[in-house]
Design goal:
The structure is a single chain. The chain folds into two domains: 58 residues, no CATH class; 109 residues, no CATH class. The chain is built from ten helices and no strands. α1 runs parallel beside α3, α7 packs parallel to α9 and α8 packs across α9. It is elongated, with a radius of gyration of 19 Å. The termini are far apart.
Length: 191
């Protein structure tokens, strides 16, 4: 193998293709090997590729392998793990606390890329689920526009997304989101 060749490229391509077609193109034995590689390597770029491969070819039974990366000081790895757990494996309901934490940004994510992904995860989740905590976080980020316009913009986009893009001004969209939040809080209290 050449010096610049990616040892995981074949796994990655097969995992991606399998995710698109619904075929199992990475075997259980290969996944076990890849988990071992992920636990062995300290190279963050290799870890990132391995997390992505597991996201495509693995599934919720591998959540215990990815969960430790949520605490990584490397925001790229933490964000990749959060994305796979929530978006690829539909486990957002188990990780709402982590999503909310990343939505507010972390010192490990100075460029805010993980923050933006977490906002997107929240918006996608809230399309089909009720979660007053996450919805309240999105609203508070929009209301905090004076402190961070880019974050507020992404949070507002997520609100429009979860409301299926109504053709209304920003203030009306925010009022619609607040009304939904009030309903969700009332429903939660009634249970």
């Amino acid at each position: 193998m050449g010096e610049n060749e990616d040892p995981y490229e074949d796994f990655y391509e097969r995992a991606r293709k399998g995710a698109k077609t619904g075929e199992k193109l990475v075997s259980t034995e290969e996944l076990a090997f890849l988990v071992g590689e992920l636990q062995r390597t300290t190279n963050w770029e290799e870890q990132l590729v391995l997390i992505e491969i597991l996201g495509y070819a693995g599934g919720p039974s591998y959540k215990g392998v990815l969960e430790p990366f949520l605490l990584s000081l490397n925001a790229t790895l933490a964000c990749a793990a959060l994305w796979e757990l929530c978006e690829h494996w539909n486990l957002t309901s188990r990780y709402t606390e982590q999503v909310a934490t990343f939505m507010h940004g972390t010192p490990e994510d100075p460029l805010g890329s993980c923050q933006m992904r977490a906002i997107g995860i929240a918006g996608n989740y809230l399309l089909d689920h009720s979660d007053p905590g996450l919805l309240g976080e999105l609203i508070s980020l929009v209301e905090g526009a004076a402190t961070n316009k880019e974050t507020a913009y992404h949070a507002l986009h997520a609100l429009y997304h979860l409301m299926k893009y109504p053709n209304v001004p920003e203030a009306v969209a925010l009022e619609m989101a607040r009304a939904r939040l009030d309903r969700e809080k009332d429903e939660a209290e009634a249970q």
